[in-house]
Amino acid sequence: MEAAKTLHEMTAHERLDLIETVADALEYKAEEALDAGRQKVAANNFNLAAAIRGLATLDKRGDLASAELLLQIGINYCVAAEPEPSPHTFH
């Protein structure tokens, strides 16, 4: 297995693959959230996926610190367990 690389060490093609993978996963999670009636969670995931897809326009050595932060957030959203719905409704 290949050793992990930082965004700076990745080629432009590798970065694009990572961006697409994370954005696709977020969109999948968003669809699941919609199916479960969790519109706000779905909107957050769709919006984060769109922001991450925007990273694809960075040049070879663009603002990789911002890209790294968005990708970390996106990955965390993908692996985070969805909280169980509260049995109580507050008005």
Describe the protein's architecture and organization.
This protein has a domain at 27-79. Helix content is 60%, strand content 0%. It has helices spanning 12-35, 39-53, 64-79. The longest helix is centred in the N-terminal third of the chain and has 24 residues, at 12-35. It is elongated, with a radius of gyration of 15 Å.
Features:
mainly alpha, 91 residues, single chain, elongated, 0% strand
Low-confidence regions: none
Counting copies of identical and different chains, the oligomeric state is single chain
Q: Average pLDDT across residues?
A: 86
Our estimate of the beta-strand percent is under 5%
Query: Which bin fits the share of residues in helices?
Result: 55-70%
Protein name: Gamma-glutamyl phosphate reductase
